[in-house]
Amino acid sequence: MLSQVIVYLSLLCQVMAMGYAISLFRQTKFNVAWIMICTGFFLMAVYRVFELFPVVDRLAEDLYTAKVWLSLVISLVFAVGVFYIRKLFQFLRRVDRIRDEAEKRVLSAVIRTEERERQRFAKELHDGLGPLLSVSKMLLSGFDTSKPDEVNEKLMHNLQQVVDEAIVSVREISTNISPHILNDFGLKDAVSSFIKKLRAAEGIDIQLRSNVGRRRFSYNAEVIMYRVICELINNTIRHARASEIRIDLRCVDEVLYLTYEDNGVGFDVQQAIGNGGMGLSNMRYRLNSGDGDVQFTSEPGKGVKAHAHIHAKIK
Fold it and tell me: 303 with 240: CB under 8 angstroms?
């Protein structure tokens, strides 16, 4: 009786092991080694079934030959599986290496982005606010009670103008770092405000179409899409020598879709991505962090077309 219970328990464990092994087929990408091992588990379960016959029907002699051949097949299957499993481990090592390289590229992109933002911030402070503060100091040093009141009043008037310009400069720098319009009014208004400033300064025709309206989305999605649009426009202005930009921003089923086109000189997409040029890798990293992506289509002399999307939960 005890031997019969042991055989049944052994069969149950073997079937459970076989079922679990088969459930891992998808994760192993139907690897040959794993298929052979699962086959071995299945044959071992069959072998355990054969072991029930001596207990139930006393047919041990008739099944002996079948059990011997089955044991040989099981051994061969496991031997082949173990031989091929080396390829499975090689594949896993290759996946780990690719993941490590991807993490290094992401970290490099983050560092480049942060450093570029620091440089831009330092340049704006140096070129924008620095001269105004220098002029303010110069005007203050010009005050002298021995001078006529008209001279001091003129100095005071000029100082007030410089301070007003400094305040405006600080607001512009603050807006570039963290646009208050984006925080207060949303993505569409922030993009429209950015475009309005560029139209006057750069003399470029920028058209925006959107069905977003006043809808608000998750903070990360709004910031990421805003930064991507600004980066695309800045790239066009700096590199493309374009006269027209067309932007289409749509929301469909809580996904923001962006189509961006310019009529500039274009560029070699593969070369630019490979070299990390024009901030393309940074844009892709930002969008990937929000379960999105961006694709570029361009040829030298034929402008640029970009399609981007990001999941954006509506508030």
Answer: yes
Q: Domain 179-311: which topology?
A: Heat Shock Protein 90 (3.30.565)
The token pair that represents 218 in the structure block: 């998750």
Contact 303, 266 (CB under 8 A): yes
Regions of the chain where pLDDT drops below 70:
1-4, 6-7, 10-11, 14, 17-18, 20-21, 24-30, 48, 50-68, 70, 82, 88, 111, 145, 172, 174-178, 200-202, 272-279
Of residues 65, 6, 13, 20, the one with CA closest to residue 44: 13
CA atoms within 13 A on the CB side of 54: 13
The whole-angstrom separation of Cα 266 and Cα 88 is 43
Per-residue pLDDT tens digits for 270-293: 776 666 555 677 788 788 888 899
CB 56 within 8 A of CB 94: no
Q: Where are the domains of the chain?
A: 2-104, 179-311
Whether residue 124 contacts residue 166, with contact meaning beta carbons closer than 8 Å, is answered with: no
How many C-beta neighbours within 10 Å does residue 204 have? 17
What are the Cα distances from residue 24, in Å, to 17, 20, 50, 91? 11, 7, 27, 16
Calculate the average pLDDT of the chain.
78
What span, in angstroms and rounded, lies between the C-alpha atoms of 20 and 38?
Answer: 9
For residue 145 the two structure tokens come to: 């009670």
Token duo for residue 115: 């450093």
Question: φ and ψ at 268, to 5 degrees?
Answer: -80, 110
